Amino acid sequence: MTEKYDYAIVGAGCSGLSLAVELFHSVPAGSRIALIDPRRNYHMDRLWCFWNTQSHRFIDAVRNEWTRWKVRYNGKEVVHESSRFAYQYLPAETFYAAALQEIESYSSADLLLGTKAEKIIETNETATVVTDKGPIQAWLVFDGRNSPGRHVGSGYLLQHYAGQRVRVASPVFSPSTMTLMDFDIPQRGGISFMYVLPFSPTEALIEPTVFSMSPHEPSVYAQMIRDYLQSRFGVADYKILFQEQGIIPMTTQRHQSYDTERIIPIGTAGGVVKGSTGYGFNAIQEISQRIAAGISGDCLNPLPEPRGELATILDRIFLSFLKRHPKAAPRVFFNLFKRVPPHHLIPFLSDKADLLDMAKVIFAMPTLPFIREAFHSMRAREVAV
Ligand SMILES: Cc1cc2nc3c(=O)[nH]c(=O)nc-3n(C[C@H](O)[C@H](O)[C@H](O)COP(=O)(O)OP(=O)(O)OC[C@H]3O[C@@H](n4cnc5c(N)ncnc54)[C@H](O)[C@@H]3O)c2cc1C
Question: Is there a domain that residue 341 lies in?
Fold first, then answer.
């Protein structure tokens, strides 16, 4: 028998849960909402960090923040400090707990865990999710299915990483300043840097991050962490408290599209995660708000775009440059932070840039190579960037 809902959300991860929470606050009371996900439970599987450039419903779930961050290259450091923007840390466990609490309090939502969507099709002015437990019909279906393996071999540059939250015996970390990018590590197998979130003098997340076409074996990231703790902090012994790993496609393309307006890709599948940075949390919150505001009964109008055209063009040029000139990337990133002050750079990295912010970023790029890259990426629109 087909179960009938007003709205179905396929994939109850970050984008699915965020959209559900927004819908609870905007659709008429009693609207039936299904959330479908093969996972059987929620656990601390990742952490989100972002600059506090906007308000959202999960602000109470933020657990830490830094107002100083640095980028290191070739023995030099550029440190940014901002009284306006803080770099915030939100662990998945508190995000999931807050979202699940909202779902429990909304009586006409069904969270169908342990249920895998096989396909989504348009059917007689509705859409049907074919699942391994039977069909589910809804006026609108939001497709937020995502899994790490999905993007491997896609032809896109990948941002891949595996981090460990470690505890060490002696105080070696400086909790006042987080490290966004430390390029002073071996540049093997792609553009490589270390990302460090110092939670206390003895606890930090150490995350090797690489931009390349294929991910490393897990043991490679673990070795990179060992080497980094030894070379940068003189630490040989440490306890691993938590691990996360991710693969994010670095592209401006949507990963999923449909011929019908009844099936709407969201989250990573909808191209919401910013290809050039891998940041997605804020954009997911914002687009969820815009989708919820745009729903009227059985239709969504208009379908919100994740970012403006100019931001997409800049991302495309930047990604094309990274893909074709990986050796130049560490210097380009370093100079970007050196030349653009945080109150212009953070809006750009967070998809909140105005024309002045964008101009500051464009003029911080090496002019001739980026003009060449702009022509290349225009000629190669069909190339996967
Ligand atoms: C480890 C990691 C760390 C990240 N850190 C940051 C960060 O610090 N800051 C930031 O802004 N962004 C970060 N991102 C990027 C982005 O914000 C996250 O990936 C975010 O979780 C994307 O949301 P999503 O809904 O697209 O995917 P997910 O949250 O991964 O949700 C996808 C859901 O789809 C489900 N699914 C898969 N197959 C099916 C199926 N057949 N049927 C139904 N459901 C299915 C999965 O079980 C999952 O629950 C990170 C990504 C990863 C992977």
Answer: yes
Question: How far apart, in Å, are the Cα atoms of 21 and each of 289, 308, 362?
Answer: 9, 25, 37
Nearest to 319 by CA among 248, 237, 267, 246: 248
- Write the residue with the smallest CA distance to atom 25 of ligand 1: 15
* Claim: this prediction has a pTM higher than 0.85: yes
| Distance from C-alpha of 353 to C-alpha of 36, rounded to nearest angstrom | 35
Ligand 1 pocket mutation, candidates 47, 145, 266, criterion most atoms within 8 A of CB = 145
For residue 52, which of 336, 290, 281, 246 has the smallest C-alpha distance?
Answer: 281
In this structure, what token pair is assigned to residue 170?
């002696």
The domain that holds 22 is classified in CATH as 3.50.50.60
Residue 110 lies in domain? 3-65+84-147+251-300
Q: DSSP secondary-structure letter at 270?
A: G
Q: Which of 50, 160, 248, 286 to mutate to test the pocket of ligand 1 (most atoms within 8 A of CB)?
A: 248
Amino acid at 87: Y
Distance 321 CA to ligand 1 centre (A): 26
Q: Token pair of 51, please?
A: 């600059």
Are residue 137 and residue 61 in the same domain, yes or no? yes
Residue of 10, 21, 37, 264 best suited for mutating to test ligand 1, as the one with most atoms within 8 Å of CB: 37
What does the pLDDT average to over 287-300?
A: 89
pLDDT tens profile 103-135 = 999 989 999 999 999 999 998 789 999 999 999
Q: What does the chain come to in residues?
A: 385
Is 51 a domain residue? yes
Ligand 1 centre distance from Cα of residue 365 (Å):
31
What is the tally of structural domains in the chain?
3
Same domain for 314 and 294: no
Note whether 143 and 272 are same-domain residues.
yes
DSSP string over 100-142: HHHHHHSTTEEEEET--EEEEEEETTEEEEEETTEEEEEEEEE
CA 88 vs CA 13, 53, 66, 134, 302: distances in Å: 20, 10, 7, 41, 31
| pLDDT of 243 strictly over 60 | yes
